[in-house]
Design goal:
Blueprint (H helix, E strand, L loop, with lengths): L9 H15 L6 H4 E5 L4 E4 L4 E6 L5 E5 L2 E12 L8 E8 L7 E7 L8 E7 L8 E3 L10 E7 L3 E6 L2 E7 L15 E8 L19 E16 L2 E2 L21 H13 L1 E4 L13 H5 L4
Length: 295
């Protein structure tokens, strides 16, 4: 794959690894305090005094967890090391979601593949129960060898997806042209590792090789600089907001350097963009696609 060997990526890759190492040393939460293991029996485990969480999938079941707290806007960081080897048919999902039929959702999904082939990073944004805003990417590194940081910045103006602090996608608030934006429903953080071999790898052609089970993904260094939702109100509405909330995510956008990095990722590593799928939208692309160059 050219994506893993192009000389154009060397300096950016070094910077990415440097940023990742800095974020790895940042103050991190404790999984015992911050999350509940919600399904999968003993396939989900918290170890190392709450510093590491593992999800596993075998023929009988996958596993998952969710945050104890709900958030309404914030910056969410999590380091993941994905299932290694032949992960075809598996999906590791990491996302924010509210509840109900008209839920909002912000998705990272990692679609497994055969050994030697790259993972596909699938992203989506749901508003009021409607998604269909998929963008997919290859990564410029092997996400199974080391931990990497996957982040969501969610404020009133935009949603930014980041990988090792590189923006890969931006979804702008365009309510002015009738595009719904998630701004009123608090969301929890969820993650799961599950069997999706009916669609995940080459449209379901490649199935899970159960002889390689159990499949395991690892999590560490969670951090939420965010507004906590409790009893119908947000912590950011009070004067006793955590100092971590004052780091600029509330109005953060993309400066010139970040826009260049976004264009680089989308030029060399984007493999699907709903905004350019004319067969899917024969009557015209969605309005947010017409109004933004960096959705």
């Amino acid at each position: 794959m050219e994506a893993f060997s192009s000389p154009k990526v060397s300096s950016l890759l070094l910077f990415s690894l440097f940023v990742s190492s800095l974020m790895a040393t940042a103050s991190a939460g404790n999984f015992y305090q911050d999350f509940d293991l919600t399904w999968g029996d003993r396939r989900a485990k918290i170890v190392d005094g709450g510093k590491l969480l593992m999800l596993s999938l075998d023929r009988a079941s996958g596993s998952g967890f969710q945050s104890k707290k709900e958030y309404l806007f914030g910056r969410i960081d999590m380091q993941l090391k994905l299932v290694s080897g032949n992960s075809a048919g598996t999906v590791t999902a990491y996302y924010l979601s509210s509840q109900g039929q008209t839920h909002d959702e912000i998705d990272f999904e990692f679609l497994g593949n055969l050994s030697g082939d790259p993972y596909i990073l699938h992203t989506n944004v749901f508003t009021q129960g409607k998604g269909n805003r998929e963008q997919q990417f290859y990564l410029w590194f092997d996400p199974t060898k080391n931990f990497h940081t996957y982040s969501i910045i969610w404020n009133r103006q935009r949603i930014i997806f980041l990988v090792d602090n590189f923006p890969i996608r931006q979804f702008q608030n365009q309510e002015s042209i009738g595009v719904p934006f998630p701004k009123s429903q608090p969301m929890r953080i969820y993650s799961s590792l599950w069997n999706a071999d009916n669609w995940a790898t080459r449209g379901g052609v490649v199935k899970i090789d159960w002889s390689k089970a159990p499949f395991t993904a690892f999590y560490r260094n969670f951090n939420a600089a965010a507004c906590i939702w409790s009893y119908g109100s947000s912590s950011c509405a009070s004067k006793s907001v955590s100092p971590m909330s004052n780091i600029g995510w509330q109005t953060q956008g993309l400066d010139a350097k970040s826009r260049r990095r976004l264009r680089w990722v989308q030029r060399y590593y984007m493999i699907y963009n709903y905004c350019t799928d004319m067969k899917r939208f024969p009557e015209g692309i969605p309005p947010e696609c017409r109004r933004s160059r960096s959705i």
